[in-house]
């Protein structure tokens, strides 16, 4: 199974087709090779260092909330 995480673009580096994204206080350089017209403030789905597509802020918030909920459920699991 693959997991793509929503992240907000904080800077676009047009000369290298890359961007800086931020998620929960962490910044990371990613490739924009698969996404056209991404700009600062857009949310993108990131998988293994590549933006796969843009998504709305609302969809990003829903997805991040579900991921947080899964983490909360996993932390209450008593199995080793």
Q: Please state the CA-atom Rg, rounded to the nearest Å.
A: 14 Å
Estimate the helix proportion, in percent.
10-25%
Determine the mean pLDDT: 90
The coarse silhouette is elongated
Order of helices and strands: EEEEEH
CA(first)-CA(last) distance: 21 Å
**CATH topology title:** SH3 type barrels
* CATH architecture classification: Roll
* Uncertain parts: none
Largest sheet: 5 strands, antiparallel
Bin the strand percentage.
Answer: 35-45%
Strand order of the largest sheet: 3-2-1-4-5
Number of helices: 1
Counted up, domains total 1
CATH top level class name: Mainly Beta
Q: What is the strand tally? A: 5
User: What class would the helix/strand composition place it in?
Assistant: alpha+beta
What would you say this structure looks like, in words?
With 80 residues, the protein is an alpha+beta fold. It has a single domain, classed as Roll (SH3 type barrels), CATH 2.30.30.140. It is built from 1 helix and 5 strands; from the N terminus they run βββββα. The protein has one helix at 57-75; strands at 5-13, 18-23, 26-31, 43-47, 50-55. The chain has a 5-stranded antiparallel sheet with strand order 3-2-1-4-5, with helices on one face. A hairpin with a 4-residue loop joins β1 (5-13) and β2.
